[in-house]
Design brief:
- Helix 5 crosses helix 6.
- It is globular, with a radius of gyration of 32 Å.
- The chain starts with 10 loop residues before the first helix and ends with a strand.
- It has ten helices and 59 strands.
- It is 8% helix and 45% strand.
- It is mainly β.
- It has a domain of 107 residues: Sandwich (Immunoglobulin-like).
């Protein structure tokens, strides 16, 4: 019987095991803070003594659902697994007046503490008190933050992607410019995103479902609120070495309610990108429209509720393809200048075989061929989202929920998203994403002190990219910053990936005395389908315009006659072939994540809470198909026995136990000042794209990739080297004119690459610790001071191990222009031990990191028309090469592969200081006595977000290309390794970019219509003051002046690059020049 990859059971046995666990555990008590919250407190008599045996009724104001409880011997009640929303608590006890407490808000992932004092009864008196829960949660031990419903609905957010609100919370920073976020100095690849308790991740690229390339996959109008787990979060949460997002969607209530909305922004109201403006480029046109609705109500009052959301975004954002204007003639004229003298970069005599007229025609023709591919191009982004949800209160002890979310993204010419790009439109293409998920939940309360919740999810994430043109791809390095015609080397992506997820989850709890016991499991089965043959269409690389002009076909002009080098003046040609799966690069594999936890929240003392937890995580990894190794390639057999063995198995990391401990101490017993401390071990998850590379991208098993160089002279035999722009064949990937079979010519050989994991490769491990002191200033305001620390171990890095150790005396010395030595380092010039391969890239779990942060926070929750939150974070992040690369890199990520520790310095995620403040203000203009002023001002509401942060640590690169006389193994880095190109005499990331300062602002005007309806007009400005927040910078800190060699000693004279750190971009997914947005809502 077929076994599932990465497991020890058959598919039928796997399903039996899962169903057996469900049946066994479904009847046990459970608590799931995933997608829910809880409410608890102590009932006391007038003297302050606890009151056991009191009847407590907790009622959801919106749905009418009630939970009946009885206080225990400690006078305590706990209502577990409550849907976030408004609640009221009623307490009854003989001899005391009935007390009704309303105005209580339960938020996702949090505990609302409501202590209720009773009064002696006076003739069936009912005492009603309107007061919220304590702002200081006296039993919370984790370091978390809540993004409330008020914030989600009313704060300005660029693009209306709700996940970006996580940047409002401490220690969270952008990871790059495309939307990933880093928690506590850890890569954005190790976060966990959940919606209503279900996994909302894509395992392939370790991002949220749909990735950051799409506008969003769940509408902001469907999200009620969410919790951000920053440090020492509960054992219920896992598969995250970074942070967690725990979101909950809206539901129907006993009242029919909803909203219709329309948002629009246009380039007429937006500021120009400062870099483009300074270079004389006009602002690119753009119009973005977003519209939809969300609504819900009862099917049957207090029993069955429905909710429906639809959201559509149309974005028209054409771009322009243009050279970076780096090529000038002797008079300083630019490549795109009509008066440019092409003879300064293209020899008429050489290209024309001595015929100057023909040479001039070819040079001018090649220039025009490139210019013809530049210019404006159309581009759109179309996003459609829908969510439907049913909530059914079966009876007081059982409830059921079912929901479906649909998402579709289509973007013609959307592979490249910059306003201005040096990728020609032929190198662009169609970008498409389709995601769906179905989620079923059953919540049961067998007794008043037990709760069980079971979830089941089926989800899909399919992503495709289609090219605008067939291969080959042509790149122009060194002299021209133009990516020429033909499809990009990574296209087409027929499925990249097509990922299906099946999730079973059961969480349960049991309250006994001072203990709240929780335990549960979470099983994630993921099937990956990838159809992509990297470089399958062929790639030509040219290092000069002249060589390109010698080869490019031009109508009516023959190519330069250079003997066997005719049409072969490229630097190299690469093409990959799939020898096993029909030539299309088809990969199928599965992973299964097994997660278990147990946790005890122990009330050691009325003022002291201890939280003890243990989590176990195991990912069943797929194993390579052993039948392939029966007839390995000749190149594979040249590898060492150790590497051959590594390619045939993947390490199953089975000892991932994560203990967690936290305490909360109500120092003075007044529930105003709480000290929290905690420690835990947390494990990241290796991305499935990295697993795919380790399984299939060794180019000798299912892939064969060649790299060919042109003949060394005009008389050298060409071998099987193609003439530009020919390729050996076109892979059958849906491209017009594709071959049914695409294989390399017989006997061909060329340098290729190899990728694998070390035999001891394990998942990343993060130790988290925190210390927090929080104090309540008033019932609605608090301040806190926190210290957070993270120690990262076993983080991955990619290293080229196909390098011989430098021979004795092989060194490179760097000097300044005055002859002063800057440093001497080993030089790699002795070739490769496995000569059949170029790079042998190995993923090693050897990176370590440290993160320290001090956080000050002030919080005023919403009351009397005002909500305000501000925090300041001072932090430092160090590591020796942590990155956010998912699939294998094609080169070493370290400067010296034999001394990884030399790269220990400031992290790529090191941003020292950050200040964020946000507010929502609904002024009481209705109290103005002047009627005219009151009518004008009433209904105005203001909200905003201020963000200030330091620049990011930045590498000091050295612009270097080793001369052939140096004999470097790789000529692209100063020491011949082909790895990190930093200036070796300086530590990594010693420079700092400019910081960011932005203020986003919203003004809302409400017009009420009857009792429950209102019309809302709003205006938003992102980066209101149009501050230039640069996102790209010149990276070369030093330039080479001269080189020389004396035996094994090499010498490089360098000088500082005056343009180092000069900005070259000022726009990203998260920030840019000022943009304005207008909106309209109808709310009922």
């Amino acid at each position: 019987m077929t076994r599932l990859p990465g497991t020890c059971v058959s598919p039928r046995g796997f399903l039996r095991l899962v169903l057996g666990m469900v049946v066994l555990l479904a009847g046990l008590p459970a608590l799931a803070q995933l997608g829910s919250g809880q409410l608890e407190g102590v009932v006391m008599d007038p003297s302050g003594a606890v009151v056991p045996g009191a009847r407590v009724v907790v009622r959801n104001v919106d749905t009418g659902q009630e939970r009946e409880l009885t206080t225990n011997e400690l006078g305590r009640y706990r209502a577990l697994n409550l849907r976030p929303g408004q609640y009221e608590v009623t307490v009854e006890q003989a001899g005391f007046a009935t007390v009704k407490r309303d105005g209580i808000v339960v938020e996702v992932g949090s505990t609302a503490t409501v202590n209720i004092p009773l009064e002696v009864a006076r003739a069936q008196e009912v005492v009603t008190v309107t007061e919220g829960a304590l702002i200081v949660e006296p039993e919370r031990t984790e370091y978390t933050a809540i993004v409330s419903e008020l914030s989600v609905e009313n704060l300005p957010i660029n693009g209306r992607r709700w996940e970006n609100f996580v940047l409002l919370t401490p220690t969270v920073q952008p990871d790059g410019n495309f939307g990933l976020v880093s928690y506590r100095g850890i890569s954005g690849l190790y976060n966990n995103n959940t919606i209503d308790g279900a996994d909302n991740n894509q395992a392939f690229f370790s991002e949220a479902r749909g990735r950051t390339r799409v506008s969003y996959t769940v509408s902001q109008a469907a999200i009620k609120e969410f919790q951000v787990g920053i440090s020492n979060y509960s054992a219920e949460f896992g598969r995250a070495a970074g942070g967690t997002v725990n979101a909950v969607t809206k539901s129907g209530t006993n009242t029919f309610h909803g909203e219709g909305f329309y948002f629009v922004r246009d380039d007429a109201f937006n500021a120009a990108e400062p870099i483009s403006k300074a270079e004389g480029f006009e602002k690119q046109p753009e119009r973005r429209q977003q519209f939809g609705f969300s609504m819900g109500g009862p099917v049957k009052e207090d029993k069955l509720f429905w909710f429906l959301n639809y959201d559509q975004q149309h974005r028209n954002f054409p771009g322009i393809a243009i050279t970076e204007l780096t090529v000038r003639d002797s008079a300083g004229r630019l490549f795109t200048d009509p008066n440019f003298n092409v003879a300064d970069i293209c020899s008429f005599s050489t290209v024309g075989d001595g015929n100057l007229a023909q040479g001039q025609a070819r040079c001018e023709g090649a220039r025009q061929a490139l210019l013809n591919e530049l210019g404006p191009f159309g581009r759109k982004g179309l996003n459609n989202v829908a969510l439907g949800k049913l909530d059914w209160t079966i009876n007081p002890r059982h409830s059921f929920s079912a929901q479906y979310n649909f998402h579709k993204w289509r973007s013609p010419n959307g592979i490249q998203t910059q306003d201005r790009t040096n990728d020609t439109p032929l190198a662009n293409g169609f970008d498409g994403v389709r995601t769906d998920f179905v989620l079923l939940r059953l919540t049961s309360l067998p007794t008043t002190n037990t709760v069980n919740e079971f979830r089941f999810q089926i989800g899909r994430d399919k992503e495709i990219q289609r090219p605008n043109a067939p291969g080959p791809s042509t790149t122009h390095n060194n002299q021209l910053d133009i990516d020429g015609g033909g499809m990009r080397d990574f296209l087409p992506r027929i499925a990249f990936p097509n990922e299906k997820r099946y999730q079973w989850q059961d969480n349960f709890s049991y309250i006994r005395g001072r203990h709240l016991l929780r335990f549960g499991f979470d099983i994630n089965y993921v099937r990956e389908l990838q159809i992509n043959l990297f470089r399958g269409g062929g790639v030509y690389n040219y290092n000069s315009f002249q060589n390109f002009a010698r080869d490019v076909p031009l109508t009516g002009l023959a190519p330069e006659n250079d003997g066997t080098r005719t049409g072969r003046h490229y630097t190299d040609f690469r093409q990959a072939f799939d020898l096993e799966t029909g030539g299309i690069g088809r990969i199928v594999f599965t992973t299964t994540d097994w997660n278990f936890f147990v946790q005890d929240t122990w009330k050691l003392h009325p003022h002291l809470t201890l939280n003890l937890g243990l989590r176990y995580e195991y990912t069943g990894l797929p194993q390579p198909d052993q039948s392939i190794f029966g007839s390995p390639s000749a190149a594979f057999l040249t590898l060492s026995p150790e590497l051959q063995a590594e390619a045939q198995r993947m390490n199953q990391d089975k000892n991932n136990f994560g203990p967690r401990i936290g305490l909360a101490w109500d120092i003075f017993g007044r529930q105003k000042t709480v000290l929290r401390a905690g420690y835990g071990m947390f494990y990241g998850r290796t991305s499935n794209s990295a697993l795919a590379a380790g399984l299939f991208e060794n180019n000798t098993i299912t892939r064969f990739s060649i790299r060919l160089f042109p003949p060394s002279s005009s008389t050298a035999p060409p071998g099987a080297r193609p003439q530009y722009p020919n390729t050996f064949c076109t892979p059958p990937l849906g491209t017009p004119g594709a071959d049914s079979v695409c294989t390399p010519p017989a006997g061909i050989s060329g340098a290729t690459t190899f990728a694998d994991f070390t035999p001891d490769y394990v998942r990343p491990l993060i130790h988290m610790g925190e210390l927090e002191l929080q104090h309540s200033l008033t019932k609605d305001m608090s301040v806190s001071a926190s210290y957070l620390v993270s120690r990262g171990n076993r983080l991955p890095i990619f290293i080229d191990i196909n390098l011989n150790a430098p021979a004795p005396g092989d060194t490179v010395t760097f000097l300044d222009t005055a002859g002063n030595p800057l440093g001497t380092f080993p030089f790699y010039a002795t070739g490769r031990p496995f000569s059949a391969f170029a790079e042998v890239i190995q993923s090693q779990s050897v990176v370590n990191s440290w993160y320290h942060a001090f956080v000050l926070r002030f919080n005023r929750r919403f009351s009397q028309g005002l909500q305000f939150d501000a925090h300041f974070t001072a932090s430092k992040a160090l590591d020796n090469g942590q990155g956010s690369t998912t699939f294998f890199a094609f080169f070493s990520q370290v400067a010296d592969p034999r001394d990884v520790q030399r790269d220990y310095s400031e992290s790529d995620f090191d941003i020292r200081k950050k200040f964020v403040a946000h507010f929502y203000w609904d002024p009481p203009f209705e109290r103005i006595e002047n009627e005219t002023a009151r009518k004008i001002l009433e209904g105005f509401i203001f909200s905003g977000i201020l963000t200030l942060r330091d620049g990011r640590a930045f590498n000091t690169a050295h612009d270097f290309f080793a001369p052939s006389s140096f004999g470097a193994t790789s000529r692209f880095t100063p020491n011949g390794t082909g790895g990190n190109d930093r200036a070796l005499w300086l530590s990594r990331n010693t420079a700092t970019t400019t910081g960011l300062a932005t203020f986003d602002f919203r003004v809302t005007k409400e017009f009420r219509w009857g009792e429950s309806k209102k019309i809302v007009f709003l205006w938003e400005a992102f980066n209101l003051f149009n501050r230039s927040n640069f996102t790209g910078f010149e990276g070369d800190a030093f330039e080479t002046v001269s080189t020389s060699r004396a035996g094994g000693a090499r010498f490089v004279v360098v000088e500082p690059n005056p343009d180092f750190l000069s900005p070259n971009a000022a726009s990203s997914t998260l920030s840019g020049p000022r943009e304005m947005q207008f909106g309209f809502k109808f709310i009922w």
